[in-house]
C-alpha cells in the first residue's frame, strides 16, 4: 500500500511571463485551526513551478492542499 503525504501550502507570489506564470508556495504556519497541525509536520519547504495553463488562477495568500503519492508504475524512457 502506498503511503500518501498531505501538505498544506500557501501561495507566496505569482510572477507573470509571456506564456504563463511562475508560482512560489510555502507551507502554512500558525496556531489556528488545522494550520497548526500541518505546520508541525511540514515546518519548512518551498515549491516553485511554472504553469502555462491559462485556466489556472492562483493568488498570493491562497492556500492549497497538496497530495504526494509515490508513482508505483514508473515507466522509463527508452
Characterise the protein shown here.
With 78 residues, the protein is mostly beta strands. It has one helix and four strands. The protein has one helix at 35-41, and strands at residues 4-17, 20-27, 47-51, 63-69. It has a four-stranded antiparallel sheet. A hairpin with a 2-residue loop joins strand 1 (4-17) and strand 2. The model has no long low-confidence stretch (mean pLDDT 86).
- Basic shape: flat
Structural class category = mainly beta
How would you state the average pLDDT, rounded?
A: 86
State the share of residues found in helices, binned by percent. Answer: under 10%
Q: H/E element string?
A: EEHEE
- Uncertain ranges: none
Number of helices: 1
The major pleated sheet works out as:
4 strands, antiparallel
Distance between the termini: 28 Å
List the helices and strands and how they pair.
Blueprint: E1 4-17, E2 20-27, H1 35-41, E3 47-51, E4 63-69
Antiparallel strand pairs: 1-2, 1-4, 2-3
Write a short abstract of this structure.
By secondary structure, the protein is mainly β. The protein contains one helix and four strands, in the order ββαββ.
